[in-house]
From TrEMBL:
<protein>
    <submittedName>
        <fullName>Uncharacterized protein DUF397</fullName>
    </submittedName>
</protein>
<dbReference type="InterPro" id="IPR007278">
    <property type="entry name" value="DUF397"/>
</dbReference>
<dbReference type="Pfam" id="PF04149">
    <property type="entry name" value="DUF397"/>
</dbReference>
<feature type="domain" description="DUF397">
    <location>
        <begin position="11"/>
        <end position="65"/>
    </location>
</feature>
Length: 72
């Protein structure tokens, strides 16, 4: 497997993140080069990151947009 250098990645804050601290960041360079989508909490930049395949991330975002995970 190819080494993924996430600590040195260029992280971008999601445009859907709120100003109240609910911030998600992703590293788009890995999508183009490896077909992967790294995601992390911007409040914990040295903490863990999740690594999704493009297909899995697209399915997750689609489910979120459809309200599948709404807590009511």
């Amino acid at each position: 497997m190819t080494h993924i250098d996430l600590p040195n990645a260029l992280w971008v804050k999601s445009s859907y993140s709120t100003d109240g601290g609910d911030c998600v960041e992703f590293a788009p360079e890995f999508t183009a080069t490896h077909g992967l989508v790294p995601v992390r909490d911007s409040k914990d930049p040295h903490g863990p990151a999740l690594l999704f395949t493009e297909t899995a991330f697209t399915a997750f975002v689609t489910a979120v947009k459809s309200g599948r995970f709404d807590a009511s």
